[in-house]
Each structure stands twice: as structure tokens, then as C-alpha cells.
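Box S2. Input/output pair 1.
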Amino acid sequence: MSRVQLALNVSNIDAAVDFYSKLFGMEPAKRRPGYANFVISQPPLKLVLIENKEAAGSLNHLGVEVETTAEVNTATAHLQQLGVETRTEEQVTCCYALQDKVWVHDPDGAPWEIYQVLGDSQVRDIKPVEVITNNCACS
């Protein structure tokens, strides 16, 4: 099953987790320092909260979580055939998870990722990067 991902910058992770726990009637599926995610079944949504007090806005990035790397590869090929600029990442640690993914930007610069989670990680990401470089947007 695929699900849409919405990643938000928040100024206070504890307050945000409290609010979204009440809103969706559930606790986070994953909670780490400065990070939380909720796996919501109805509507199918992965809500990611990233503590980032310096962020200019609340949107961090958007995404579609898929079940297999083959789905990531199919999406990549499809987007490239349509002339959309892509950047792929394999076996990357991002948002406390090992992932395969492809990044694109919409016409206004909003970053989207299509990704598969391969496994859990105890680190947020391997190296500090910026959204603008299409790397892990969790930093």
C-alpha cells in the first residue's frame, strides 16, 4: 500500500506530538529526539514532524511511501521519460530510517520524494544536507 507523506517543520516537538496525537487519536509510530512520525490508516498518511526552530515555513517536504524499491525505480523511470529532473538515492539514512528514494521538485520548488523504508536507524541522517540539494530533508 502506498501512502502520502507530509513532513512538517515544528518549533516544539513535544507540543506538536501532543497536538497530533490528539488530532489523530494515536501515538507516534516512531519517536526520536527532535523527530516523530505518525502512520495514519485513514486517510492513508505518514505525518513526519521535524523540530527545526530556524525554518522559514512549516513545510519541510512531501512524499509518497511505497512498499518496494522496484516501485521507486518504476517511478524514477516514468518521471525521467516525462522529462522531470530526478535525483536518486540508494541505501541512504534519512529521518531515522534506511531508504531507497527518488527526489523531484514541483514548479514552485516544493521537494517531493518517492521512497521505500528498508529498515530502522538510530541516527537521523548520515551527514547534514539541505533540501535544496535534494538530499535528506530531515536535517
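Box S3. Input/output pair 2.
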Amino acid sequence: AVDLTLDGHPDKAARLNNLGNAFQSQFHRLGDLGDIENAILVKQQAVDLTPDGHPDKAARLNNLGNAFQSRFERLGDLGDIENAILVNQQAVDLTPDGHPDKAACLNNLGIAFQSRFDRLGDLGDIENAILVKQQAVDLTPDDHPAKAASLNNLGSAFHSRFDCLGDLGDIENAILLNQQAFDLTPDGHPDKVLWLNNLGIAFQGRFDRLGDLGDIENAILVKQQAVDLSPDGHPDKAACLNNLGNAFQGRFERLGNLGDIENAILSKQQAVDLTPDGHPDKAARLNNLGIAFQGRFDRLGDLGDIENAILFKQQAVDLAPDGHPDKAARLNNLGSAFQGRFDRLGDLGDIENAILVNQQA
């Protein structure tokens, strides 16, 4: 349709926008980077062809922002999240109060702010994320099909701030909102998996802070449901497995049941295997797998486990760019693995490496 539409035709921009949406849908289904590149290209053309004051200008800016967000989530390029925030903010500013798309534009802007916070750690970004996501929830009627997603996204922002500042009110809000999102979503809905996963993460966050065993039991229960509901090939399968592994490890560290650390390693290994090279979460999942191997080494003393811990933690460090907010923590984790092997074998090279990476951290 685009190829047959002459330049200057009043429908050219709309057809380019629709083509961009199709490319982006195919990217989410198949993961081919060429599709998201094409989506950004044609959505940008659609925006450029849409004059200021046109009633569809905001929607096309919002769609372009979503495409930049998708590429950022895949490749981690800061330029993409900067562009996502820029065009999503323009979309919000151009959408009048009372417009049915206002809430969606606010929600997408909030997601972009949170993504930049997760990468750079600037508290202003998570404050902005909560602010605009709360506005999106408030503007979305209870019976609106997007209500659950808005609640889930706001809960995610509260959880991110809890991880940074430790305010119990934030994790309480996260659990409440994630539970509401889950309760509003019918069985069989494709987002049910994600809501369960996020609810489980919130329960674990409160367990890590307060130590209530009921929270880690609930975390394992709902994360297991998320894994069971995500078919092979589901884009969130790896994340669900990684998070389930974290919950098993959390219970192992509290109760010492070997079955939990075995399950943690199994789930985290599957998560790593399902995460393609170049994915922005690859390093975090490798780091988590290394932590699980070291946990089993500390309990059983099998040298193979500490070798694997060093291997995966080193890969996680190598994949984390300078300036990444988790770089120091991953270096610290690698240092602890070198220290663990030194304590067992007494090789001076290990303690030298431990000192080196801990100094870098």
C-alpha cells in the first residue's frame, strides 16, 4: 500500500505508520532486528509527514516512541531511550486532557522514564515514572481493557524505587497494584504471565526486606505459575525462569534445603540458554546463575561449582558496559568467587584477582 501511494498523498503518513506497526509486531514475534529498524524508519517518516496540528500527530509520535523503546530493550543503546522519552513527551504534550489516548501516552512515557532509571539510576527518572504512571491509572476506567496493564506498570515503578531507597511503603504499593492487575486479567490472557511474574518479584522484594517466609512461599508459587503458563517461545519465558530461580535461591539461603538450590540452578541455566547473545538482560542472568553455583559450592564444596561461578560471573562483568549501574556489583560478585576458590585451594592468583576486581568495584 505504501509503495502504491504517491508522495504528497494525504494517506501516505497513515499507511507508513501502519506499516511501521506491522514491522514492530513482527519484531516482537520473531526477534529480527531488521524489523525494528524498519519500524523506526517508517514510523519516523510518518511523523515527519504529519503536520503540526494534525489530529494524528500525537498518536504517531507515541508509536515512534514505542519503537525506540523496543529497540532499547533489545540492544540497550541509551540513544534509543533518550529518543523514546523525547517523542513520548511530545505525544503527551500534544494530547489534550480528556482525550481517550491520554492515559496510554502517559503510560508509555512512564515506561521510558523507568527504563532510563533502570539503566542510569537517576532518582528523578523513577519519580517521573511514578508520577506519569499514576496519572495514567487515574485516567483509565476500571472496566477499560488497559487498566490491568496500567496497574502493573505503576507497581513496577514503585518496586524499582523500593529497590533503590528501601521504603516499605513502595513495596506494599507494588504488591497491591500487581495483585490488582492479576485479579483484573482473565485466564488465558497473554499478559497473565507477566502480571504473575511481577507479583512474584514483589513478594520476594518484601521477603528480602522483612524475612517473612510466607512472602517467599508466595513468590515461588506465583513465579512457578508464570513459568507454567508461558509456552516455549514466549518472549517472557527466560525472564520468568530467571525470577523463579531467584526465588528458589532466596528460600535456600533462608532454610538451606538443597532441593531449592538445585532448582535455582536449573531454572537460571534455562533462562541463560533462552536469552540470545546481545540481549540487554544476558549479563544479569549470567550473574544470577554464577551466584547460584557459588551458593551450592559454599554448601557442598564441589570445585566444579566454583569454576562455573567464576566463569559465568566473569562473562557477566565482560558484558556490562562501563557506566552501567550494576557493573560494580558484578565485579564484587566476581571477587567473592575468586575469594571462595582461594579459600579452598590457596592459589595466589585467585586472591590477586579477588583484590583486583574488588578494587575496580
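Caption for Box S3: DSSP finds 16 helices and no strands in the chain. The first helix runs from residue 12 to 30.
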